[in-house]
Protein 1
Amino acid sequence: MTNPLKIDEPAQLLVEGRDAQAFFCAFLEKMKIQDMQVHNFGGINELPGFLRGFVRIPDFADNVRSLGIVRDAEDNPRSAFQSVCSALERARLPLPSGPETPTTGRPYVSVLILPDSETPGMLETVCLRAVSSDPVMECVDEYF
């Protein structure tokens, strides 16, 4: 049996998968950001159901100031954004006009598509970009 989710912070970040959750938790810790909670919504097909349940958590309406959703672009960043917006709409949450464009009101809602809003890929693509100029990458490329 899983533990029910609990709202402990005013900023909530929903991410796709355990690896993304570990990454963003480490990132927030490194950046010393303490008022944000990270939740794994599972796979891309699980976001709609997760969101519908998430907004029903008793403390959601009173305590959540901002909500971020991070999702991999996979093969199509536009389709990924539309999929997130569809899930937001079903959960009766504000719809951002585009990726990385927060809504107004409460909660602020923002969507981040990885690696960016124009390129197919995922979190791992972002990580590889971060080290692409490192000389060791030549050896990694050669290995593969």
Protein 2
Amino acid sequence: MRFREAVIGARRRVLVALAALACTGMAACGGDDDFANEPRPAAPVDVSAAITKRGLLVSPSKVGAGVVEITVSNQTDEAAQFELAGPTTPPGTEVPAGGTGSLKAQLDEGIYEASAEPATARTARLRIGPPRPSPSRDLLPP
């Protein structure tokens, strides 16, 4: 009987020691003062652009500031260089005749002029409003 009690006592001491060690390890986690719990950036917004013989169309023409992904469809017979000019000027993208191109950029608040030369001389405006809210409180954001 004494042997059994000694084994049970040893097990208890081991379990208490492991529990104390686990608590100490958990207390060490998350103690970094340099960590900032910043909200996530807003999800990217999709914008479509169409280069036609009549001109350039951008839809929607107004979105909030943040990452914008523009998909450009060239419906003309010649290649075009799609570009945005405004408060920040991202690099343009080449759009082949009858093909598509894409542009992804962080756009600040302001008015941007979209152009697609030489396919069309007409431009389109893209209005970038205040920054979009963070999806931190949304369930399963994209």
